[in-house]
Amino acid sequence: MLEFGPDDYKDYVFNVRLAKLLGLCQTLHPKNAKYYGYNIYQLSTMFGMVLVGITAAVSGLTGMYHWSNDLTQFSLVYTTCQNLMFLIYKSTAMFKRSDEIWDCLDVIRFDFLSYEFYDKTILKVWQTRTIRITYAICAMSFTATGLWAVGPLFISESYVNLRNRDGSYDSYRLSVFNFYFMVSSDVYNEYFLMFHIVETLIVYTISIIMVLSHVVVISLFYAIAGQLEIINNALENFEKNHINFQAEGNLYFILCFYAYVLCHM
Length: 265
Fold this sequence. Notes:
Blueprint: H1 16-22, H2 24-28, E1 34-35, E2 38-39, H3 40-66, H4 71-96, H5 98-104, H6 120-154, E3 159-163, E4 169-173, H7 185-190, H8 192-241, H9 249-263
Antiparallel strand pairs: 1-2, 3-4
């Protein structure tokens, strides 16, 4: 089983430091105590997601009804709620299959294949690529989220005019989503900071879950690519030293695939 030691960072096609910082290792590790099929990290995350989902659902559904005559705001609220519902499903599915995902992550080990005479520099290259791109995605995601969240605080004079169901217009101070919290525009503007904090927590929850899932998928993709390159390199060396044949198109791909399967059996 895949295990990360306290200083174990060098022999994986994986950004171990970032994964630990984001809580990904703790969330997916199968040895953590489980309650009702989920460990404590997953339960706490799901509890937050449920609160976010309830808030977004109530505010979104009432907002879509209240602003049904404002096509732009209706579309924005609908799209946000749709993405949140998908995100909740996505995170639940990821946590439910966390043991299988952890087993799949076994491919990130440098010694994953039984073939021992591989060129370690190949995996070093893919490790560097993985670390760079995951750091870049994390930095861009959280920077964009931070700018999105703090932007309305610096443009306090910006308001959006939204058309209500009865045809009248209300002016709301620009926020992250401008969800409808079933209060008048005057109350919303007076207690803007409180509503803004709620919306900021929602957008940061979205950002964190997206980054976690992207780190897993990208790491698996790069690790598999690196392992397949090792197999390809081994087959090329075997061809040069022992046999003389021309592998073309699908035949060469099939040989690589079967070699990969056989090495891990």
